[in-house]
Amino acid sequence: MNHINNILQHLLLGFTKFITGVRVQGAFSESTQEQYIIFSNHSSHLDLLVILSALPKKVRKNTLAVASKEYWLKNKIKTYISSNVLKTLFIHRKWREHNEANPIEILDHSVKTGNSLIIFPEGTRSLTGKINPFKKGIFLLAKKNPHLKFIPVYTKNLYRILPKGEFLPIPATTSINFGTPITLGKNEDCENFLARAHKALEVLK
Prior knowledge:
Shape: globular
Strand order of the largest sheet: 1-7-6-2-5-3-4
Number of domains: 1
Number of helices: 9
Largest sheet: 7 strands, mixed
CATH architecture: 3-Layer(aba) Sandwich
Helix content: 25-40%
Strand content: 15-25%
């Protein structure tokens, strides 16, 4: 079954490259075995696929995508693709109301067991391409893991290619830009870290 899922992932990511014509800017360093957290702007469900398609295969192997349980577990097809093909780590955005586990604890446990993560700190999709303010989750994760590198990644125009509520992609040019990693500074507070992380994405535009 793992072999089948790997083939499906290869086909899905290849199709993503084809329909987006994505150009990769910047470089993802694979010179070490270090863990990392990729944080990206979020404007389309293609964001995750484009990021995964730009990662080297051996790096992608231990990288989990963080996504909302309430969306991706809606039906059997989404559940299968997200759970088996894309290797998703599920969280519930309204976890308190639904008596779910704290998302930060889920992410921290995953990191502690050796996984790298892809997160979208805006919390929801932008309809215009504007990078919205970040939720504090990225800071809380950094505080629990101050040694981790947080890699900013900006995806361009994906909200035009697959707008919210649409099923079929619209042709447009796109690119993905890997930026310089940041880490949590000693005694750095939440407000300053979020501002730095947000700026790290903004400069990639």
